[in-house]
């Protein structure tokens, strides 16, 4: 499979790159926890934390700012606290960036890759986050309060949510997505795009009727496989989002990961208009082999590593 | 008060939920790539036997239930309680009708049972999958019929009624599957 992926990118003249696995900075995203290691030696006699990357996004964007053009990477990434049927703390990501593409053009390319790797994938749908929620749950995900979303969840055919106390509307949207919509998605590819602005992560926010994040996710048979952005390129806005993340981390008592100043510098210098996507290779392999558990596609999963 | 965090969740873990002791049947970690992590759990209420589903926010803690399973010997019933003894320590506990439940049909003096204790008191009494009991009453059956096509009802020493083949007679020992309540075979005294 990896050879097929590399051939796909070679045909398109996209350059394979490598970036550091360990870095002095990490993601500030409150939904993603980094594993930390420690380096002691020349340059850091009293030791300094090194964070294992949760995705190669920041250094790859620095390469884009340096003018490398379209690039891709296949690498191991690490996320603390994630282990289960579809999660392993160490997993393989395929991540690529396309200068000049918006998220719709990149969705098309993701579709081409998946259809080349899995010719029998079934139907392909593209639907906005808002339409998806309206279709499955008859709610508008942008204009509802947390309590309305909670009521919506309690009226679905899912039990055990009565006692759940969630911090905000995004968490209720996550419940509706994971508990109600994903299981009802059906077979084939489903691209979901234009997320609530509060779930923008590193995506550009478009000022529409309601502001939406130009972000997309790919689901295969109702399983989340990839996440992509029409990338935010404004350095000031990026710095603001990092600071908001750290503020939220501080409120909820999560570790305060140093924000990547190199990325901000690179963005100030100039990140080209581009779209990027990260695709979980292990999840894709699960789909290709019909495996129900991620352990079936990893030789030595976490508990045996 | 002992607690468990969601990262300790696994099948068989005993928790307190809504005031009742429960046991985890299945635990699934659910997390959108950029969103809130949840533990979606199927749980059996040990008092009622009902299976429920519950979703927790990952990182939450839940009170642990002081529940353990022990092998105890059934002694006797006084009509209101059923008395059991630990054959090693000779300690005795008594179970009420709701704890004994359906097992009452198969309880014979001196048989060993699996008893689930919550805070030291029995909440579930489980009999072995197979028990050997004496038939106290059954129709003599037709002479010459040894195939036992339709069978006949037989009352056992515990009061349970099972269908047995026609050739089985009052006073004989039979082996019964307690899960289905069905006759398995004739048995010998061991």
Automatic annotation (TrEMBL), chain B:
The modification N6-(3,6-diaminohexanoyl)-5-hydroxylysine is found at residue 34. It holds the Pfam family EFP_N. This is Elongation factor P. Involved in peptide bond synthesis. Alleviates ribosome stalling that occurs when 3 or more consecutive Pro residues or the sequence PPG is present in a protein, possibly by augmenting the peptidyl transferase activity of the ribosome. Modification of Lys-34 is required for alleviation. Pathway: Protein biosynthesis; polypeptide chain elongation. One of its GO terms (biological process) is peptide biosynthetic process. The gene is efp. SMART domains: EFP, Elong-fact-P_C. Coiled coil: none annotated. PANTHER family: ELONGATION FACTOR P, ELONGATION FACTOR P (EF-P) FAMILY PROTEIN. Keywords: Cytoplasm, Elongation factor, Hydroxylation, Protein biosynthesis. One of its GO terms (cellular component) is cytosol. Residues 131-186 form the Elongation factor P C-terminal domain. GO terms for molecular function: translation elongation factor activity. Belongs to the elongation factor P family. It is found in: Cytoplasm. May be beta-lysylated on the epsilon-amino group of Lys-34 by the combined action of EpmA and EpmB, and then hydroxylated on the C5 position of the same residue by EpmC (if this protein is present). Lysylation is critical for the stimulatory effect of EF-P on peptide-bond formation. The lysylation moiety may extend toward the peptidyltransferase center and stabilize the terminal 3-CCA end of the tRNA. Hydroxylation of the C5 position on Lys-34 may allow additional potential stabilizing hydrogen-bond interactions with the P-tRNA.
